[in-house]
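Response to reviewer comment R2.3. The reviewers asked that we include at least one raw input/output pair. We reproduce the pair for SPW repeat-containing protein here without editing.
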Amino acid sequence: MMAMESNRYGPTYQRNALAPGVLVAIALVVGTMLIGSEWYETLRFVIAVLAVIVAWFAFQAKHWWWIPVFLAIAVAWNPVMPFAFEGQAWLLAHLGAAIVALVAAVLIKAPRPE
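Raw output as returned:
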């Protein structure tokens, strides 16, 4: 009976990284279509910022193992000092990072404050 009352108001955890994780995954998939266009540089900025946000939520949730993954995504897609990646491998990196972002968005959760 006591356990039921603790869940009376919903889950006891929250997924703060869900929205930015899904958004970065969408941006990465859209990025595969925009490589080489003038919009791609703007999209790189969005990807890098959202990756840092997901890393911050991972830090807050004490899911330390996700932090280097999203910092690597932020560095690889940074618009300030961009790397000259191209070709099929770069397209696959976009899709792989999108899958990783979706997995992290679902798995990163923190206890809901009382």
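Strands lie at 13-14, 110-111. Helices lie at 2-6, 18-34, 39-60, 66-76, 88-107. Further pairs are available on request from the corresponding author.
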